[in-house]
Structure formats: C-alpha cells, structure tokens
Design a protein that fits this description.
Radius of gyration: 34 Å
CATH architecture of the largest domain: 3-Layer(aba) Sandwich
CATH class of the largest domain: Alpha Beta
CATH topology of the largest domain: Rossmann fold
CATH superfamily of the largest domain: HUPs
Structural class: alpha+beta
Oligomer: single chain
RNA sequence: GCCCCUAUCGUCUAGACGGCCUAGGACGCCAGGUUCUCAUCCUGGUAACACCGGUUCGAAUCCGGUUGGGGGUACCA
C-alpha cells in the first residue's frame, strides 16, 4: 500500500472553530501515525469572504496546536485554470453538458453516466414501481426526470432525479398503455435534442441503481441514483464550484485518504463520479462525526462559538485541547484517556473512530488542562504563569518570589487565568471573600485564637514552615480544638479566600510582618 | 416531502465472534480519607443499554418497525 497522503482543506472565511481543528487533528494523527504526509490546502475561492487575516489566523492556530504540515500550502484560488481545464475536458469527453437553468446563462453540469458498465461503485438493485399524481406531467430531458408522487392527502409531491437513475423507465396511463419507454430514445435525450413532457401517467417503473462506497468510519454506504440530481460544476458566470475544485485538487495533490466532516458524506456520492469521469483513482474516504454545541447543533462559523483562538486566549494548553479533542469521536480502546502526543500518535487509528456526533464538555477539558499544567516542567510553568500575570495590577514584582508562589500552586492551577487568584501574595490590601469571612472568621472565639496565634508567631525564633505549624498546634491545643480546625480561619485572614495552597507554606512565604498585619485585619473582620 | 447517517450514565466513551455485562472507564456531582484546610491527591458512591416487536437456550450486541437527533436535498463551502 502506498504511503498515506492526507490534507486539511479549510476555507479562510472566519475564525477556525473547534470542529474544523478536530478535523485537522484527525488528519494529522492519521498521517503521523503511519509515516504519511499531512498537507494543507486553503480553499480561498470565495474571494469575498476569504481574507488574508483569516489565512494568517489559520497559520497561527495550526502552529499553536502543533499541527505541522508537509510541503507548501496550496491555495485553491491559484488552481482556477486547472479546474476550468478539467471542466473543458469533461465537456469534450461527454461527461458534462452545458445547460441554462432558470434565467442565468449556461452552466456546466456533470452528467451521471447513463452507461455505468465501467463503474464499480454503481450497482443495479431492485426494480421500482411508483404511483404518480396524474394531474402533474412527467418531464424527461437531459437534466433528468421530474415527476410527482401523491402525498397522503392526495397533493402532488414533486420529485426530480438524474436521468441515469431511471434505467429502463416506463410510463403508463390509467388504462395500462405504455406512454414512454426511455431506453429506446435515450440517445436523443442525452444529447439534448429530444425532451418529453408526458401527461396522464399514473405509474412509472424503472430499474433502480445505487451509488456505493465504503467509508473508513461509517462502513458501507449507498444511495439511490434516482434521488440525486446532475451537479453543476461551473457556474454560468464561469466560476468553478466547490465540488469540482475540491476533487481536482485532491487528485492533483495525490490525496490517498479524504478525511473530513460528516457533512460531506452526501457530496461523496457525487464526487465519486467526478473522480471516475476525470479518469482518477478513488481515494479512501473517512467521514468524522460532527462536534455539537450545548444545543446539540454543530459548531459553525456563523454562530461565532468556540473559536480555537478563544481557548488560546483563555490560557488553555494546546496539548490539553489536542488530547481532549482527540477523545471526541475516537477512543484508544483502553481506559487511559490522558495521552500525551507521542502516545496519541502511536495509538491512533481511523478504524476506531465512531460515527455519531459528540458534544463538547468544557469541564472535562478543564480537568485535562489542569493535568497538563501539573505535568509541565516547573520552569515552563513559571514562565507561562509570569506571562499570564502580566495583566494583573500587581504584576512586575520580584521574579524569585513569584516562582516560589508558582511552585506552591502549580498542581492546583487548572488554567493560567487562575493566576489572578494569586493576588494575596502580591498585594498589600486584601479583598475578602464575604462568604468565606462569614463561614470561617465571623465565629465565636475566632478572634481570640487569632490573637493568641499572633502572639505565638511573634515569639517564634524562625518564621518557617515547621515553626508556623507548631505555633498553630500550640494555639489549637490550648483552646482544646481539633487539629486543623483553625486552618480555614487562618487562611481567610491571610488570603481573604477559603481556598489556596497549604497554609503553613502560604504563611512562610508571606513572611512574619505581613502575616501579623493580616491577622490583625482578620481579627477586625472577625469582630 | 424525499434521500443518507445515527441512538449505552447529565457529558465523552468501552462494549470485535450474541453468553466473561447483576454494562467498565473518564469528567461532573455526593460522601469519606490524607492524625492541617482547600481547587491538589487517594478511596468509595451516584447515574445509562430510546421504545416496540422478532430471531435465539441466551441480545446493549443480530433483524424489522416506531420515535428522537444530525446531515443532505443550492449556479454555498
């Protein structure tokens, strides 16, 4: 088997969201897990909406996520001539025709071939017999067959399908007389010289044909050809449409596996004909389940939700987001979910991707982020925390002291924005959490104990962790309290908060002078 | 309307051959523990096979139907 060549093909029409980047991740993992190549193609043919800023943002996001691509990015807009040339050759080979639909000029349409003998992905299935609505005519021309079924209430329900979907079509009237046999005149219809409008038909019979392909994720898929319509490949204004451009580029880039979102499944039934008409070999297809938002709808650029850049701005670790996203629609098959990138590369396989949509769980992502932060080498953690603190009022103190605080809090940090909560180490005047004050400080006897503690602290020879611990123990023993009962009141007095790092370490780091001042302020709060 | 896909705890998921599933793991939540607290850590608990039929000695697992969800049905990508 040839090496795997995959591509990520976003259109730069806005910020890239979580669904897009997950597609990129799976492509990247598929390639990296088997030594294949991961290419980037920027589908910028929608010139009105494609902006250079969006392209730069795309590069930024990919770099941040560590999604390295091979070779130079391909810009689809630069391939326009190739697309048009392909359309021209399709026209010359009889695989396409020009037709004026509506009031526009002539567009170029791909013709699903009447003769499917050489196409392994089209098979004849059952013979179909349909009751028609007699009031509506059946129209047969080179664009296809249009007819009307009856709804339950007896109203006409218009249908339309490509000519090739109606092999052996026969139309009958109520008396059972054959009104039209398609196969006899298909030649003229195909070249556009003959068209029929048949009135009074109540019954149609034809041989159904199905288009089939095997998806690496979803398995064997099929769709009746009579439910499909001929596909415009070049608009009447002369611009190639997405389907043509996409397939031409994938052929030109020699893509072996097309890995994309579930929303492209239906397109694939049409794309296989394009590959065949262009004389190209079919790639393998893998359609990934959509990632849906809290409302159960797929993320879209229009909703402006869940941009990857937002996660970056909020201080998420790219590796944590990467790891988390990998678990949406895929699982390694064992119980370990926390998998650094090399493990992910080793474990990833397309055949373990599932096919139903997944919803983001931001809490689980946060948990992953906390684990990745805890596992960061300390120097890296401290640098990033320092950078994250730059926007705080208290930023810019001594780096050595900051590092000591960071060391104390690394394992408890879920997100770098949490450093805002480190303020008690860096500011003079505390902001008290009212709830914490009420619960821990404003209780009978607390003020007395804090006074006793202040005295004990003052008498301490060395204001270190061991000394602080024994001083606290001394006070609780004298008050006949349970060990640790005084810790939360002390914490609230020293930090204004009910949560934080170990209290002895916190006190030691704050230093005797500040601790004493805060105890006094705390006593005032305790009233 | 028509076509395609899909359905296990609140969420992400495990569950190749039907019995090892009185359905496992993770997040969340709850409780307890770490002879000092907490957002760390440890232990325990909570909670699911959409519904109805069928096949079978036996079904979350196979088949059919219903319902729900998603996608498509464009001279959008």
């Amino acid at each position: 088997m040839l090496a795997m060549r995959v591509r990520f093909a976003p259109s730069p029409t806005g910020n890239i969201h979580i669904g897009n980047i997950r597609t990129a991740i799976f492509n990247w993992l598929a390639a990296r897990s088997c030594g294949g190549e991961f290419l980037l193609r920027i589908e910028d043919t929608d010139r009105e909406r494609s902006t250079d800023e969006a392209v730069q943002a795309l590069f930024g996001v990919m770099e941040w996520m560590g999604l390295t691509f091979d070779g130079e990015p391909v810009y689809q807009s630069a391939q326009r001539e190739a697309h048009l040339t392909a359309a021209e050759s399709l026209l010359e080979g009889g695989h396409a025709y020009r037709f004026a639909k509506g009031d526009g000029g002539e567009a170029t349409l791909l013709r699903f071939p009447w003769n499917t003998a050489g196409l392994p992905f089209v098979v004849d299935t059952e013979s179909v017999e349909l009751e028609l609505h007699a009031d509506e005519p059946v129209c047969v021309d080179q664009t296809g067959v249009s007819y009307s079924l009856r709804t339950r209430k007896g109203k006409p329900a218009p249908q339309q399908g490509t000519l090739a979907g109606f092999k052996g079509l026969q139309l009958y009237n109520a008396a059972g007389t054959l009104l039209l046999g398609l196969d006899d005149e298909v030649g003229g219809i195909l070249d556009g010289t003959v068209a029929h409008e048949v009135a009074g038909a109540v019954r149609m019979v034809f041989q159904r044909r199905e288009v089939q392909f095997t998806d690496l994720v979803k398995g064997h898929l099929s769709k009746p050809l009579d439910s499909m319509r001929d596909q415009v490949i070049v608009r009447s204004d002369g611009n190639p449409v997405f389907h043509l451009a996409n397939v031409c580029d994938d052929i030109a880039m020699e893509i072996s596996h097309v890995i994309r979102g579930d929303d492209h499944v239906e397109n694939t039934f049409r794309h296989v004909f394009l590959y065949a008409s262009l004389g190209a070999k079919l790639p393998q297809f893998a359609h990934l389940p959509m990632i849906v938002n809290q409302q159960g709808r797929p993320y879209s650029k229009r909703d402006g939700d869940a941009y990857v850049g937002d996660f970056r701005a909020k201080g998420y670790q790219p590796d944590a987001l990467f790891n988390y996203l990998t678990l949406l629609g895929w699982s390694p098959g064992h119980d370990v979910e926390y998998m650094p990138r090399p493990e992910l590369i080793a474990a990833f396989a397309l055949d373990r991707v599932i096919s139903s949509p997944a919803q983001m769980d931001f809490r689980k992502l946060l948990d992953f982020n906390g684990r990745y932060l805890a596992d960061l080498p300390f120097a890296e953690f401290a640098n990033a925390a320092w950078a994250a603190a730059a926007d705080e009022d208290w930023a810019g103190g001594e780096r050595e002291f900051f590092d000591q605080v960071a060391l104390l809090l690394q394992t408890r940090t879920k997100l770098f924005t949490d450093v805002a909560g480190w303020a008690p180490f860096f500011v003079e005047t505390l902001t008290y959490d009212e709830k914490a004050v009420r619960k821990h400080l404003a209780k009978d006897g607390v003020a007395d104990r804090l006074r006793a503690l202040a005295a004990a602290f003052s008498g301490l020879e060395a204001f270190d962790v061991a000394g602080i611990e024994s001083a606290i123990h001394g006070v609780t023993e004298a008050a006949e309290m349970k060990q640790g009962k005084l810790n939360q009141p002390i914490r609230v007095a020293l930090t204004g908060q009910s949560v934080g790092a170990g209290i002895y370490e916190t006190a030691a780091l704050l230093g005797r002078e500040r601790v004493l001042a805060r105890l006094e302020a705390g006593i005032a709060q305790a009233g």
